[in-house]
Protein 1
Amino acid sequence: MPIARFKVVLLGEGRVGKTSILLRYVKGERVPASDDPPTSPRRDAPHRRYSDRQVSTLQASYLDKRLSLRAGQSASLSIWDTAGQERFHALGPIYYRDADGALLVYDITDFESFQKVRKWVRELRQIVGQEIAITIAGNKVDLESSRAVPEAEALDYAASVGATHVYTSAKLNKGLEDAFAELSERMATRRNETRGPGAAGLPGAKRSSISIVDDPVAPKKKDSCC
Amino acid sequence: MTMRASASKRSTSLQAATIAAPSTTKERLDSLLLSRGLAPSRSQATALVKAGAVLLAATPRRRPGQKLHPDCEIRVAEGSLTRYVSRGGEKLHAALERWPSIARSLAGGGTAADFGASTGGYTDCALKHGARRPSTAWTAIMADEFDVDLNDMKEYLDEPDFDEVEAPAAPSRCASGELPFDGGEGVRGSDGADAAAAFAGRPPDILKARLDASGFGVENVAAAERRLTLEQQRATDSEPDIFADGGELAAPPAPATPPRPPTPPPPAVRGLDDDAGPRRASAFVKKDAPKPSQPSTSAAVFGLYDRSPEADAPTARREAARAKAAADREERRQAEDAAEGSQLSYKEFLTRLMQPSSAELVGHVRTFVLQILGKFEGLEGDARTEALAELPATCAQFFAAAEAHLEKRPEWSALGARGLSSARSALEKYVMSKVGGLAFEAVRNDGRDAELRRRCRALSRFVTPGHLDVKAHLCNEVVLNIARDELRRMDHSRAPADKVDCVVRCASMIFSVLNLARAENSSRKGTSESRAGADDFLPIFIYVVLHADVPRLHSNCDYVEAFHNPTALMSKAGYCFVNLRSAIEFLLTVEASQINMDEDAFAAALAAGEAAVDKGEAAGPRP
């Protein structure tokens, strides 16, 4: 079965923890819980040696992650971090135009960041439509005591726009695996619905309407058009 | 080399191998050397044999695996007992003979660093020529440049304790062939080409700029460069050309590559090769540090840290360098993982393409390219414009069909998904290198290019890093200029993938700066990790693009989008490319509020900038 490739964009205001989420997700559960007192790089070096395996220079901002879907299919996520500063807001469409999914991150201790999520959702629905699977992630649940976004409001809102709501903590490595796994399932379902299971491996085909001709002598045929 | 010369004299009378007594178990020649104590190690034994220094009945034996009677009389030619711990030393020795000025600077106590040391032949040779060991910090930076694991070099460093707690658990990866002793290209001749090959990973002028800017005077860089350019030229010339004879398939390309001197990988192949394997770099030579007060060049010289060294700075630096080296080590490992699926290098692709079984594909490619070229021959005016407008779709269709063809052919599909996709990329590269001129014409938009350039030039007159919230200490113009150089190469590259590659290299460089600075910060604060995300990257990237003044930037981007495999743009390369798009968009639409400026001040500054640009352009081309 071909591997389904999905593009997921990370959207959210600056400092809500997008980068930490990405970084923590790529390392998975192999990283020792970081509510341990901070260790010097030297002391935790053996862990780094292993878990850093997958981290490249760019990989706090771009990440390839392979995971298995429930149906036994493999999915490959390319997760794109985006700059969260307000001044770059208008650039969003360049990143999410052809995305299959979006993870909208807000900080549960920062109501503004949740308002920003609403803005992203409106935009995504307007520009990409229902095609894109959305997950809203309330990050920093380790700071529950300073919560500023009422839980009911967040959950209701997510339900009203057809998005999944999850709580995450990049710091405690909580909820991340599940959030991405669930998002992947929805993206796969959507793609299978719209294109049939066979077409899953070719994200590019969406944009460029290339028909892949089965006939092995196809290139010769192409000649007639030029 | 002396020992080679003597060996070849003796080899004039080739004897038939008469090996006695088949009754006894025979042994490999190299094992024999080892067991008799004629060579200190197996690798040295092999080196001796290959060098023709091992004689059986006065005849050199050149196959280390030759089975010989355990009692046979073998001897090692005098004077050939290796001077250096491995054959690599001989190569560097030859290079130093060829370029005496480097040898002189070593003898004068110059510093040498061997990146990718496995058995340490280069290092041994350099040290025996009087070189000093390099400072750890310096090595860390350079190691990073060349994707080499610092752990593998510790025994050659002046501060080998940079990592005293963590002993290298795994055997050296270099030794296991990650940085193949011969650069993965087979055994090189000892004619100094290796030194040139050391420069092959990057375009020589970039490297030179980098070294010059960093205060490393590499004597004879120019000589290495000339040689490299020559060889690259030759390598390019030797690319099989299925159009050369106007009809029949060209002969298999294997012997077309000049067997001597060894050819460093040509730059055109870089993009694909980079993914396939690590770059190799060794034996850089640095003249004596200009500042006697600071004998070891510290990382701070590179301006990558915002402070002058403090009491704990060496530790912090070591850790920062270590973190960075680790990061790149991981990246390399990842590249290896990616390579597991038998990725195809461009060269391998071309070799396969020239095999008889690929005749059908070659036929399609030829027909396609010749038809395109033929179609535009003498086509002018509207008809040409129309035909050009169709070109992207035509190419896309062809590539899709070719991809389907590849999937159907067992000899290609056996390569697996990765192999196929790299074959697809290589095919694209090949075809685009033939029709790239026309393809670029199809998307070229001088008006928009000029508009973007004018805008950037005007903005660059007054937009500072501060306007973009880029921290001053990150703005090391030396490094950023290198990043800009990489970006500007976009315009010279031909294939879409190569253009994207330039963007990736530019972005990687910026991320390196960011990560290094953050690693430094976090190790000081005691937080375990910190890496630059998009929030940090985009502003500084915009700043780099703003001042890069890339020729025909807009058209170059359109070209990539129109002719590059859309699937390839879903990857990391695509991420970098989209960031470039995004940076351009920002620069074209930026308003006062977005760069922390007052409306009026911004309008005035922009107008003044534009006026100055127009004036400058009227007066003549910018220097």
Note: The first strand of chain A starts at residue 4 and ends at 12.
Protein 2
Amino acid sequence: MSALLSEADLNDFISPALACVKPTQVSGAKKENTNADGEYEVSTDPDQLEKVSITLSDCLACSGCITSSEEILLSSQSHSVFLKNWGELSQQQDKFLVVSVSPQCRLSLAQYYGLTLEAADLCLMNFFQTQFRCKYMVGTEMGRIVSINKTVEKIIAHKNQAQPQTQDPRADRKPLLSAVCPGFLIYTEKTKPQLAPMLLNVKSPQQITGSLIKNTFKNLAIPPDTFYHLSLMPCFDKKLEASRPESLDDGIDCVITPRELVTMLQELKLDFKSFVTEDTSLYARLSPPGWDPQVHWASNLGGTCGGYAYQYVAAVQRLHPGSQITVLEGKNSDIVEYRLQHSDDIIAAASELSGFRNIQNLVRKLTSGAGSERKRNITALRKRRTGPSANSRKMAAATADPFHSDYIEVNACPGACMNGGGLLNGEQNSLKRKQLVQTLNNRHGQELAMVDPLALGPKLEEAAVRPLSIEYVFAPVKQATEKDLVSVGSTW
Amino acid sequence: MSSIELIKSLKLYKDKIWSFDFSQGILATGSTDRKIKLVNVTNDDFALIDVLDETAHKKAIRSVAWRPHTSLLAAGSFDSTVSIWAKEESADRTFEMDLLAIIEGHENEVKGVAWSNDGYYLATCSRDKSVWIWETDENGEEYECISVLQEHSQDVKHVIWHPSEALLASSSYDDTVRIWKDYDDDWECVAVLNGHEGTVWSSDFDKTEGMFRLCSGSDDSTVRVWKYMGDDEDDQQEWVCEAILPDVHKRQVYNVAWGFNGLIASVGADGVLAIYEEMDGEWKVLAKRTLCHGVYEINVVKWLELNGKTILATGGDDGTVNFWSLKRSP
């Protein structure tokens, strides 16, 4: 504004790229420029500088931006990488391809191509089998069953541990938060470390499926480098998830989305629907040894992202005969609470919450108190609180109250996984996307077989000879630091 | 030509005044020095009645807004937070305001705050390129984020609500104004106003009932008037640039104000205050005054009713609020 700019407030928009610290870290092997006198020769030729490449793991380790740029994602996890790497590997006859696919991707493909879910599944299997010698193809329900059972176990353990001190089970206890959505997990680790202690440490179906596949072949004495595991997932952050250090051992080689699958089909000049077949025996024939196609291709009750919240409440219900589950709608369509009640007592409660706006409220509600010294005058004013707001509180009891649940299944995308960025929802405006999510959710209920993960879980764990890798290693909680601000030109 | 005459000059700060707002005869100002000052403008002495605790914010107060018809004030700061202040009842009838809440959420500098006409929504915008809509209760104590709007590609400079409809306009460094409307349970961008060739610093709605028009001021030194034409089949609104107001400013236009009298006022980096009038569908410069704050830039302009008269107030880098009356030529 005026000629004299106040230094304290001189800052305007900086592009996220500037916050990426990696390019400024010049490698240490530059000392050869030092001459005989020990003086450092400054090179004026920029070409002599080593080109810095940024990898996915750099992005995961950095606190600069929330997720990495598309360019970086695509350079290490993309359909081209799959085509190249599997193309090379498949030259060796003993190597084989395993593909796992999430239910959201299957429904999105079915909707996009105007097929039934089964027809789309068969096209997908036929395509990978004929084009890429795919030997095994699985749904992610097995991984989800393990993930759900571990989650339920941990919530119950946490609740039992916390219970004795308080008479009121809903008083001042903070809910556990799901870490299954990689978008929310990375956001929490990088920008909201104060929430990290609430994260529930159980891996997602994607990673556990990888681990289960690896286990299956290990038991058959087939080493992990014999197969290539491609995972088809609804969002781009799933690539980041597979690139986490503790994920690398799960044996997933590449994660792509339905969008990339469609691009790949175009590049190969192939029509997805031309792979249509009525051979439903593919479900069984492409199942790995010991994998029941009725199970791994199925889904389960609860939300379409995994149903963790519902399954937890259902598990507690089995311990309390006569109790009832009520489904409570929230302030908006992205909040649902499952509440287990015995007469008027709330025995257990878990919620689904998705979308950035709701996550912001979650952050504010669950971290309140952190800035309490700045609200020192509030107590005085609270005394003046009159009738209306006390009433509105009572009324709120009839709607979902996720922040007093035992557990919140958090998803970063509004509309959750059925609105994943990697699905075939095109350039539609958000209103139409909402309708599409609704359609996909309805189809999920109609076209997928439902299994009971709570009944199947114990059997699965018995069957697993080797322990599965099911826990994330969360990023260490960093002290929040003031970001270095770089000013670029403009006034304010 | 009509003239603009100075009624009163109020030196409040050493630093610049970024923003001010009036409600119930009280002027609230925000400045780089983090102090929010309250001035009673209903009496001739324009007494300073309160200075709000500057430790509530770590950086400059960029924007202040009174909740309509109340004594609740929102202040957005470069420290990325928004503070809410409430009038405290006091026995000796002095005017005192206390910090009621700090709203956190934006990643960096908050550039604008605005209340909806019914006072239940607070919109905030930031250098983080987003606009947030908060819902609040009767007392203004609790704030729940109901939407985070991220369509702007750059710094969002300013937000303003339509005087009667639930319609929000945001102005940005990306040279556009976006119009937002609630659908279902979320807010959606229903229009992008393209045309300015530089940062849009602010906008204001036509106050005429049933009218959907907006004026906007930009780095490109122009003021434009936009008109809503109707909805298309995708529920998007069509807005057209109806007029570019006569060329008055030589530099950035920082703030525009559309008065209840139908006149538009604009101020900017050139220190000029201009008033425009629409005559038979054509906009003319009604009055213009240069050096309104000496050599300093003007950041804010507002129309207000004071003792039955419609006057103008401007705030500038000289830390002064000036009050002006429009003397129409006979």
Note: Residues 11-54 of chain A form one domain.
